[in-house]
C-alpha cells in the first residue's frame, strides 16, 4: 500500500489550523506542504512561518516541497520551523550538494525532485546521500491539474538504479493523483503519493483518503 500524503495547497487557507487537525484525524501520517516562490514557479503560497505555526498542532510528518529558485537560503528556516523532510528541485539554482548537506546538518531528511521534462538521471549523482525522491507528475505550480502518466515511467528507472546500488529510497509522485489513476501509479512503483484536490477537494475527505489508500494496495 502506498502512503497517501494530502497536500495543504488544496486546503481552505482561511482555516489552516482546523484543516491540519481534520486531515490528521482521518488517518494522515504525512502532510505535503508546497512552498512556491513566484519565481521557480509562477505562483506563490506561503513561507516557513506557516510551517512554524502549524507544527504544534500536528504529529504528522511535514513533507516540505520547496519550489524555489534558491532554496539554500531558506533551508535552515524551514528546518527550524519544524519540517521533517525537505525537498529541493534538481532544476533550482542552488548547489544541490550544499542543499542536501545543510538539510542533514539541520537533522532533517533530504529529498530531490524532478519536473516532468527533467530526466530521472539528474537524480543519480545524489542518490547515495538523499532519503526521499519526488517525481513530479504535473508541471509544478498549481494544484488540480491532470496527471501526466508518462512521468510514471521514471519510477522504474530510478528504482533500478537504486537497486543496483543497494539503496532503498522511497519514491513519491506529485500531481494529479486521483481515484482513477492511483492504482496505475502504485503499479508503476510509487511508494508515496501526494493528493491535493483529490482529498481536500472531496466532500467527504475521510472517504476520499480511504479510497485512495485502498486503491493503492496492489
Ligand atoms: C503542484 C504541487 C502539488 C499539488 C498537487 O505544484 O507540488 O503538491 O498540491 O495537487 P493535486 O493533487 O491537486 O494535483
Ligand atoms: Zn508538491
Mean pLDDT over the full residue set: 98
The number of distinct helices, counting runs of at least 4 residues, comes to 8
Uncertain runs are none
> What's the end-to-end separation, in Å?
7 Å
Structure overview:
The protein contains 8 helices and 8 strands. The model has no long low-confidence stretch (mean pLDDT 98). It has helices at residues 16-25, 48-54, 75-81, 96-105, 153-164, 182-187, 197-200, 205-215; strands at 3-6, 30-36, 61-67, 85-89, 109-114, 132-136, 171-174, 192-195. An 8-stranded parallel beta sheet has the order 1-8-7-6-5-4-3-2. The longest helix has 12 residues, at 153-164. Helix content is 31%, strand content 19%. β6 (132-136), α5 (153-164) and β7 form a beta-alpha-beta unit. It has 218 residues and is α/β, with parallel strands linked by helices. It is globular.
Describe this structure in a few short sentences.
The chain is built from eight helices and eight strands.
Walk me through the topology.
Elements: E1 3-6, H1 16-25, E2 30-36, H2 48-54, E3 61-67, H3 75-81, E4 85-89, H4 96-105, E5 109-114, E6 132-136, H5 153-164, E7 171-174, H6 182-187, E8 192-195, H7 197-200, H8 205-215
Parallel strand pairs: 1-8, 2-3, 3-4, 4-5, 5-6, 6-7, 7-8
Helix pairs in contact: 2-3
The structure holds D-xylitol-5-phosphate and zinc ion.
Give descriptors for this structure:
218 residues; alpha/beta; eight-stranded parallel sheet; 8 helices; 8 strands; 19% strand; globular; binds D-xylitol-5-phosphate; binds zinc ion
Amino acid at each position: 500500500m502506498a502512503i497517501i500524503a494530502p497536500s495543504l495547497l488544496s486546503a481552505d487557507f482561511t482555516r489552516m489550523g482546523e484543516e491540519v487537525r481534520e486531515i490528521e484525524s482521518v488517518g494522515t501520517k504525512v502532510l505535503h506542504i508546497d512552498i512556491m516562490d513566484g519565481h521557480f514557479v509562477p505562483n506563490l503560497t506561503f513561507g516557513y512561518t506557516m510551517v512554524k505555526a502549524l507544527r504544534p498542532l500536528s504529529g504528522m510528518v511535514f513533507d516540505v516541497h520547496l519550489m524555489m529558485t534558491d532554496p539554500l537560503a531558506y533551508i535552515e528556516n524551514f528546518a527550524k520551523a519544524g519540517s521533517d523532510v525537505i525537498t529541493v528541485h534538481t532544476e533550482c539554482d542552488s548547489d544541490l550538494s550544499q542543499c542536501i548537506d545543510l538539510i542533514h546538518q539541520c537533522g532533517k531528511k533530504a529529498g530531490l525532485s524532478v519536473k516532468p521534462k527533467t530526466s530521472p538521471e539528474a537524480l543519480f549523482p545524489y542518490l547515495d546521500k538523499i532519503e526521499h525522491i519526488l517525481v513530479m507528475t504535473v508541471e509544478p505550480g498549481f494544484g488540480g491539474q491532470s496527471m501526466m502518466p508518462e512521468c510514471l515511467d521514471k519510477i522504474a528507472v530510478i528504482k533500478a538504479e537504486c537497486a543496483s546500488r543497494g539503496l532503498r529510497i522511497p519514491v513519491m509522485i506529485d500531481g494529479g493523483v486521483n481515484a482513477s489513476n492511483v492504482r496505475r501509479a502504485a503499479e508503476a512503483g510509487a511508494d508515496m503519493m501526494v493528493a491535493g484536490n483529490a482529498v481536500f477537494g472531496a466532500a467527504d475527505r475521510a472517504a476520499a483518503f480511504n479510497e485512495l489508500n485502498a486503491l493503492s494496495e496492489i
